């Protein structure tokens, strides 16, 4: 029974498919959480997943819009690796984003809530190439452009703004190919294979692609999507504490649970109609 100020609607079955708390402009404002909680369901605290990450490093703003097509990103907390992701990434006005970062943010969601210190990200911009091979590639580049500043030569690999930032960090912004010392070349290799930034938080949940958290699935029958606490109540999609990485998995979760909840609700409704008719006939 659903009630409003003016009317009430009776139904044999109800499906809560209100989405999470991400992208509220689409109407997904987390209203389903209160409905589920009022009927006895436990909630897992909603937080941002598949979201850009905010860094302490302000130089990211200078690289806003610059992407790395294929990067490997490792996350460390107090020196211990806690997550990793591979794929495209992009620098933003206050940190990093893109598919690889989004996947990483999902893995780090709970850590970001609990961490008392920032999380370190190490970005490898030459995935699949070991340090020795990259060093040889850099030496060949210096030899081919011996009179050219290394910051300009690196534009064969990266956009100019990123080249300047890497060279500033390696203290070789003014060095030419013929004057790039081994020490500075090692520093440059370090930032290309292990560019380090520190994460303080994810962007707000309103800007996240999906919500992690929501209605605890312990109270839901996975074979029907029906509530174990309130017969006739079904759930579908992101309102539940179910999420996946980038790549269409979250859309598939929504479609699959929606189809199952719909079929299950229809079957229950039809069974109730049939039982009511049989009862009437027997009387």
Describe it for me?
The protein is an alpha+beta fold. It has three domains: 2-45 and 211-281, FAD/NAD(P)-binding domain, CATH 3.50.50; 53-126 and 196-206, Elongation Factor Tu (Ef-tu), domain 3 (Beta Barrel); 131-189. The chain has helices spanning 31-38, 99-114, 131-144, 150-153, 160-169, 182-193, 249-282; strands at residues 2-3, 8-9, 14-16, 43-49, 53-55, 67-77, 80-91, 95-97, 119-124, 195-202, 210-215, 220-221, 226-227, 233-235. A hairpin with a 4-residue loop joins strand 1 (2-3) and strand 2 (8-9). The longest helix has 34 residues, at 249-282. It is elongated, with a radius of gyration of 26 Å. The two termini are 27 Å apart. The model has no long low-confidence stretch (mean pLDDT 91).
CATH superfamily membership of the largest domain, which one? FAD/NAD(P)-binding domain
Strands, total number: 14
CATH architecture of the largest domain: 3-Layer(bba) Sandwich
Q: In DSSP terms, counting alpha (H) and pi (I) runs of 4 or more, how many helices?
A: 7
Number of domains: 3
**Shape verdict:** elongated
Kindly report the spatial arrangement of strands forming the biggest sheet.
Answer: 5-8-7-6-9-10
Structural class: alpha+beta
Mean pLDDT: 91
